[in-house]
Amino acid sequence: MTRAEGVLAASARIAGAVGLAGAVGLAGTAAPAAGPWAPGGPAVRPVARGDAADLRSPAWRTLEPGLDLGEFASPRPSRRGDSFVRVLRADPRGFELRLMNASAPGQGRALTAREWCTRSGLAAAINASMYQADHRTSVSLMQTSTHINNRRMSKDRAILAFEARDESAVPVMIIDRECDDFEALRGRYGTLVQSIRMLSCKGENVWSQQPRRWSAAAIGTDGQGRVLFVHVRSPYSVHDLIGILKDLPLGLSRLMYAEGGPEAQLYVRSGGEEHEWVGGHESGVEEEDENRVAWPVPNVVGIARREGGGRPARDHRSGGADLPGARRRR
Q: For the segment 113-139, what is each residue's pLDDT rounded down to a tens digit?
């Protein structure tokens, strides 16, 4: 399926869907017991949607050492939703990334980000990338050291690389094929996830302006080598969203697109808090904001706590202006 065909198919399918997913604050639900990744930890505190103390904080706050959550009011309000940008920041010294695939042996089916975290003992998870019509295969290169989801390299220029194979490798980087020697770097990492570049290696917005607007999820790195999971439910053009993210105190170095529309989701469970944010908008489709259901997705990037700590994160600056919805739908 080509990207253009995917966009048309997505619009047709979503137009017939029942509502769109909205941001979910887990108010009114029982807090799950601490998962296997936090033995004896504090009870999870569901955060109510609209809680001013949580949603209006202008600064980062620490959920646990090495894991910070930022909730920022966008400097450019959207026409829909709350116009907030949520960013989870993880330090690779204490956390590692894991790619979860429904296509991997023993997995079997797509899950929501929350379900992926519960099944695999993750502190957080976000969409890994867009996927094809089989609801399993990524649109571009995607593999771990033990499983290949898609071996095809597309024209997209950003490749998230982690699961370093030697001590000298940066723990996590977004390889920019325009600036970096991908062939020299690829053998140093077990996990590779290809997607659309949002920032050039010079920090420039590389996405052309367009009228369509939607919710979005993205993955980035900052100048200190920390990983950023970004979720924005309110609809923006991707060009405008990149400009907004550059204006926020994120220290962005590289940034790649993960997903757009109702599927875009970020789940976090840490520091006695639990959050599940889901996409709620895609222009050209129903613009209501009533459905609060997270959609199952076949591939996510998760954050897991390292056993006994890990290697220091080195300062490494690592990142298409293609159509965002090379999509795949069930």
A: 999 999 999 999 999 999 999 999 999
Half-sphere exposure of 93 (CA within 13 A, CB side): 11
| 122 close to 37: Cβ distance less than 8 angstroms | yes
What tens digit of pLDDT does each residue of 221-253 get? 999 999 999 999 999 999 999 999 999 999 999
- What total number of domains does the chain contain? 1
Residue range of the domain that includes 228:
3-11+69-305
Domain for residue 60, yes or no? no
Residue 323 forms part of a structural domain: no
Residue 145 structure tokens: 């050291």
- For the beta carbon of residue 39, count every other beta carbon within 10 angstroms: 7
For 264-307, what is each residue's pLDDT tens digit? 999 999 999 999 999 986 665 545 455 478 999 999 999 999 98
Record the pTM: 0.79
